[in-house]
Every structure is written in C-alpha cells, then in structure tokens.
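Q: Hi! Curious about what Reverse transcriptase looks like structurally. Here's the sequence.
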Amino acid sequence: DLEEEIYMEQPEGFKVEGKENFVCKLKKSLYGLKQAPRQWYKKFEYVMGEQGYKKTSSDHCVFVQKFSDNDFIILLL
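A: Let's find out. The predicted structure is below.
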C-alpha cells in the first residue's frame, strides 16, 4: 500500500487508442519502485508486531519474541 500518489506512463501494448497521453495511477507498490522495499518492510514490521515480536533497538532488522519459560525466537531479515 502506497502512502503517496504515484503515476506511470501506460505500458507498451496497453496504450488506449486516443488516450496515449493518459497516465496510470498505481494502487499498490511494485517491485522496481524505490518505495517497494520500504512498503514491504512496513507491512512485515506490522505483522510481526501483531504476532508478539519486538524490534531490537540496536538493529531494526532483528525481531525477538520472548516466552515465559525463558525461550525466545530471533528473526533476522
């Protein structure tokens, strides 16, 4: 899901006759966009938080979930 509006030219082979100068508004992030990895991470971070994982303060690519029996799970991105 994008936070800002992004437009792109109509792809070759999909141009509408008489509307060649129209653009397409993206509804979701695509691979290849600069925003795609950030949007993926934000979604991952949200889902992991919902599952009880916490980000470490020293590295935002490390998520930890601790259990009452002193066991824990570490996820590394």
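A: A fun detail: The first strand starts at residue 7 and ends at 9.
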